[in-house]
Amino acid sequence: MPHYPIEDQWDEMLRFIATIRLKVTTASQLFKRLNSYSKQHPLYRALKEFGKIPKTRFILKYIDDLEFRQAIEKQLNKVEGSNKFSKAVSFGHSHEFIQSEKEDQEIAEACRRLIKCHRVLELPESWPHSFEQRPEFFKWNLC
C-alpha cells in the first residue's frame, strides 16, 4: 500500500504554515525545532516531499521550454561575468580593499555593487529611461 506523507500530514502542514503567517513564531524558529527532530518525523517528511513539487515543475519547464532555458543561460552568463568583474577589481585573492579608510571602502564597495548590478540587469535600450516609467519591481533596492 503506497504511503502519502503530504496527504497524511496535510492538517499539520496547514497548522505549521498558519503559525508562520500569523506570526505566532518565526519560520526560522519552527524549522530549527523541526530539524532537531528525527529526519523520520512525519511532518518533516511531508514538508520535504511538498518542497519537491516546485522543484519538479521547474525542472520539467526547463526541459520542455527552449526559450526558458536560453533566458536562464543568458542570466547565468551575466552573473558569471559580474563575478569575474568583482574579482578583477578586488585586491588579491581574498578580495580585500585597497583603501584603508572605512568611508573610502564603503564608496569603493558601492561603486563595485552599482557596476555589478548594471552588468547583471543590463537593460535594453528601449527600456524607459525615467525611473517613474519602470515597473514596480525595478524600483526596489535590487542590489
Jot down its keywords:
143 residues, mainly alpha, 2 domains, 0% strand
The SSE order reads: HHHHHH
Please mark out the parts with pLDDT under 50 across 5 or more consecutive residues, or reply none. 134-143
Number of domains: 2
Summed up, the helix count is 6
Distance between the termini: 51 Å
Overview of this protein structure:
The protein has helices at residues 5-8, 10-21, 27-36, 42-64, 66-89, 102-121. The chain is mainly alpha-helical. It has two domains: 5-60, no CATH class; 67-138. The protein contains six helices and no strands.
Can I get a quick summary?
The protein is mostly helical and 143 residues long. The protein has helices at residues 5-8, 10-21, 27-36, 42-64, 66-89, 102-121.
Secondary structure elements and pairings:
Layout: H1 5-8, H2 10-21, H3 27-36, H4 42-64, H5 66-89, H6 102-121
Helix pairs in contact: 5-6
